Fold these 3 entries.
Entry 1:
Amino acid sequence: MSAGFARTGGELRCDGVSLVAAAEQFGTPLYVYSAAWVEQAYRAYDAAFAAVPHRVCYALKANSNGALLRRLVRLGAGADIVSGGELAAALRAGFPAERIVFSGVGKTEAELQAGLDAGIGEFNAESEEEIRRLSALAARSGRTARVTLRVNPDIDPRSHPYISTGLRENKFGVDLALAPELLRRARALPAIEVAGVQCHIGSQMTDLEPVGEAAKAVAGLSRQLLAEGFALRSIDLGGGLGVDYTGEGGPDPRALAACILPAIAGLPRKMLLMLEPGRSLVAPAGVLLARVLYVKENRGKRFVILDAGMNDLLRPALYEAFHRIEPVIERGRPRSEADVVGPVCETGDFFARGRLLEDVQPGDLVAVRDAGAYGFSMASNYNLRPRAAEVLVEAGELRLARRRETFADLVAAELDA
Ligand code: LLP
């Protein structure tokens, strides 16, 4: 049986559990996640790369709910983090420090120091200046920092421009051609161990050819560095595997492995292959449940107004991203086109425009699908809206994983100035 969301008797359910009951118990907007789906997705990665030593470092930015993180820890995952906050969340959830890799183009000194103090596995450095700063901090703290260098191979991931990272014009990584020079200088620095090369060319990649190309480029660079005597321990090929938001079935970890494994075949067997998937481990595991507040027509255009908004799920507003929107209970009503929008005072506050949708009525529940990644994690309090609650479905039960915020939460950090 495949885990996650499916219809029985016209009702969309999560691993057999009623979403209507979830909304009644916890209110809306509500994120609902399938623990079983995440486990299944993690195991699919593990199985696909079983032929080589590997580590799947979950990218916390996709969804950092502690309940999900603790389950990934139990499955043996590592963590890919990009801030001091994510470091704290990873440690709190129980990820062993040596399985944590710290990525990001702008780490502060305080963040580098926190990583050193925690004894994390690798720093994914993005500039020579960062390595120098890390060296100084590590030497001062009597530690050695293990560094992987993020390279920019100038390969087009054929994804949305906002989430393409491997092109020369993007801010990420260092020019692949300059990497050997840079690493020769880096290895001469105190308290630095050069552990490998990393690359992540983009997110939501459904065409995997660029991934294979990038893997070849990074493997080639690794071979050159090994020949020069660098004692490389790992090769990190980032995240980026896309999901099919239309629900028809996209690429899977096996397809990813078929691109990556041949590219790295010539490297020493003992080198650890590191991956940093976020979206593909959690996106289809989650929905955003919302209730229809109003349905109105303006000059022949129909608007379905939900109680969830762009502050809850930003992806459609920010990237014009497509998410399926389905009534939780299908009543067989006629379908017509509608703009599905939120209550936020912005024209950009929409979930879908001109979407063919069953004629829902005020009070109906709808599910915005594939919202497990970059949903809650990008949520805000805009319009002073408390962030939604998050619920985990596991073993046929609903478990509240984060309560809905209150007004008191929203003003907790304000002072009487
Ligand atoms: N590693 C690094 C260094 C990254 O920058 C990212 C994502 C990942 C791993 C995980 O990539 P994934 O497997 O999730 O594609 N907010 C956007 C996505 C931004 C991705 C940023 N970096 C969205 O909602 O589509």
Note: The radius of gyration is 23 Å.
Entry 2:
Amino acid sequence: MKRTVRDIDVTGKRVIVRCDFNVPTDSDGKITDETRIVGALPTIRYLTEQGAKTILMSHMGRPDGEVDMKYTLRPVAESLSAHLGRDVLFAASPAVVDDEVRAAAAGLEQGQVMLLENLRFRKEETKNGADFAKELAGLADIWVNDAFGTAHRAHASTAGIADLLPAVSGFLIEKEVKFLGDAVEHPKRPLVAVLGGAKVGDKIPVIENLLTKVDSLLIGGGMAYTFFKARGYEIGASILDEKNIALAASLEKTAKEKGVALVLPIDVKAAAAFDNDAESAYYDADDIPADRMGLDIGPKSAEMFARIIKSAGTVIWNGPMGVFEMPSFAEGTKAVASALASSGAVTVIGGGDSAAAVEQFGFGDKMTHISTGGGASLEFLEGRTLPGIAVIPDKGE
Ligand code: AMP
């Protein structure tokens, strides 16, 4: 268990918190989804209630080390002020840290909150530059990491700074580590993983790690076609990860040896073109016509997956079952989301597309945990140590 803000005395201290305020904005710079801001509130509220002097920092978008006001964090400061019901000071310096910002940080009163400008206006941030980490650390007495979305990156604000200040996690990282960690390491069994998405290649380390943990592994989405090919099925014009066909065959073999049920779709919805309005029909998985491409799992597969999900103790889901962005090929993903929502299992959704799908279909509040980090949750499922979490000492250390 990592040390958290509860394990350190923050009263009267200047506490710098790495948050994930990488929120989407429209062409007028208006925030279109405040989920990440809302996710950061419990830690910020705790710090203000404890009488800390809170300094928040985050990146937004990819300004690549250049000052680009399209990515200013000013709208985030405004949103935070509204949510917290108190004025959040915005340190508008494009240099992120300068004398004015240092003076503002030094002048903070207990309970006050200030937000720095976009960390990625400085190119040293993503390079984990020691000088920039020092500038950030110089503003505060304690560092809190609460940005799970960037915990898989070793940047100045997510890792380098931990060498210079006492380091603890915020409540969001605590929650992510607890739910993702327990799901993989101490699950209520049977443990079922559902994997989808476009390519096998991107998910190999996840499959390899999960094969050592799960009771069943359900594979849908574009990934399934490489497994079909490995079995010798005709997959028509479906997406194929050519260089990983042999690997798919060996993963099936490993699953068998480990007694893991690796379950592939038994039917698919295949279309004449990659187009929502293309002519399409259902086919058995081993009977896809040469001129068709599979773009979703079929209803028999959806029912089979739902049955397995319903008898699970824990379900981990990452990746859509089909091209869910197109309504004609969203049914399989919706069926899996619905099965998770109505199961009594602990349900943990990896970030990214599956999180978006769950919200899109209105099942968000039915899941035990929806991860806020796409890349980070995937690396967690790969069994990798995330640098932004590794730098936080364990409780009692
Ligand atoms: P990933 O980023 O690997 O999780 O892949 C997500 C993407 O996979 C989504 O944009 C889906 O549209 C896409 N996808 C899912 N199933 C298929 C399929 N059968 N053929 C092509 N793309 C797919």
Note: The chain has a mean pLDDT of 96.
Entry 3:
Amino acid sequence: MWAKRPNPDYDLVCGVAYTGLPIATVISTKQELPMLIRRKESKGYGTKKLVEGNYEEGQNCLMIEDVIVSGSSVYETLETLKELKLKVDDAIVFLDREQGGAAAMSWGSMGVNVISVVTMTQMMGILLKHGCINQATSESVLEFVESHNDTSIVTKEKSSCKNGIDVMDRKKRSFESRTSVTNHPLARKLFEIMSSKKTNLCVAADVTTSAELISLAEKVGPHICLLKTHIDILTDFSKETVESLKELAATHNFMLFEDRKFGDIGSTVASQYSGGAYNIVDWAELVTVHGLPGDGIIKGLMSAINGRPRGCVLVSEMSSSGALTSQEYVSGCCKIAENHTYFVIGFVSQSNVSSDPRFILLTPGVQLDKSVDGLGQQYVTPRAAVLERGADIIIVGRGIREAEDPEAAAIKYKEEAFSAYLERIEAQ
Ligand code: S5P
């Protein structure tokens, strides 16, 4: 394990409780490196410290763990070490069960490079080669690993019942409090934007020229958490368009959300996501994805990310009349989301499809003065979307774009949707 370390020097090692501890101890003594011990629970007596050992702020600490599954233990240790202002870039694990933990840890604010000595696939190959297991066992183990790609353990543990409040109910909770139950850096970022800017408005910027797009983004930027694009309807798309959008997103603190509605097999969506005319993965932090193809679509998209923090929203229900999204379909989408929490951050929906506070529900088909558009679109008001349909975020297109004063309209929608959200959480 020590030989696998990516950097030659560390100031400290920290074993992840509990099996990581004896391994870290051996490394510590053999390499003459100071070691930290992080308790699972702070002891109720004595110094009450969660971490034992001597350290100084800014020291470079290597985490040691035996097996990584969801990454929850590594994650908890990381949080503690970061609170102590230690620098933690790497974790060495003996076995990576390839169930999403290593990928989840590598993203965004977590940014930990997880290096394994063997993966489960390699382990099965070794055991098979030495006649320790047969082909059927190997296949069933790998099938199990593949179908239990579940990083949600991280947050299930964190969100277990506190103070008698049913912390699992999404609708009852503030965006701020939900930041700590998700392990997805972009879901956290979105919750933080919504809480600090006091907005749960996403504007659908369905315009056909870059000038209109930039002008709309400038006007509504201060009032939104997300700018949703259909980039392929622009007649003059260029790299500069994207650069201007990124700048505006940074200035006004909103995220770029491409409504690509990916819906093909994994290998096709990987090419649609990365490369092509729009190179979506390069600039859109979030995208929409249909659940229809099954979870291969998620794996395909993930294969194109290349270490960038990216996420998606699953379209589980549609606002158009006669939509074919049955209850069974919705349940299937929820299952995909639960199994891929390191990529799926929520749903496009028309009802309360999930009470899990990690998932963010976005509801389109919102307008104040209209109920239909003549082409199948159906509208509800911001209040109805938030209070009756359980939306966290409302998506508004023509209601704002076609208003005489789009900025004033954005403020109106924002205020209505945010006060409905406050009403919803206060009512609990
Ligand atoms: O079910 C859906 C899903 C989406 S993402 N219904 C929708 O209308 N949308 C999108 O929301 C749609 O593609 C459009 O960009 C926006 C609604 O626009 P509006 O002008 O009808 O508010």
Note: The chain has two domains: 2-147, 172-426.
